[in-house]
Design goal:
- The chain is α+β, with helices and mostly antiparallel strands.
- It contains four helices and nine strands.
- The protein has a five-stranded antiparallel β-sheet with strand order 5-4-8-7-6. Strands 1-2-3-9 form a four-stranded antiparallel β-sheet, with no helix packed on it.
- Strand 7 and strand 8 form a beta hairpin.
- The termini are far apart.
Length: 149
Amino acid sequence: MDERIEIWNLLHDGSITAIEQNGDTLTMFISIPYVRRRMKPIGDSFVLTLSGLNRMDFCDPWGEIHSFAEELGVGVVTGPTIISTHSDSMPITIEFEYGRLILDFQSISFALDTGSPVSLMEIEKVAAEYWQELVSRAERNRGKKDRDD
């Protein structure tokens, strides 16, 4: 799958906490501590840099289009939480717990919040490990509960 699209499903439950647009380049900080803290050095966010940005529209639940930068600055403690994307080509639609973000861009790069570059494959690996451990822990706890009953 296209890494420009796949990353949004890997970072589901992450919150977009800061963005900066400089021409056709958009930099986004996505806080997702349960995945990020599995990578060294310590941190809690990933930085996505989208280049060749052609479109960035935030649609509220009623279909009204707003500035995404303004949406982040409306006194929200954390930014919108990523749910998923079902897109398979550009432009993509990223679903949030409220509203959606429509993006069209040419390329994407990934870094840790420390500035060190990271690959999609590395993010995918630590995310898969996290979810597998969560499932294993839930199964162990369910088995323990059954034994206790």
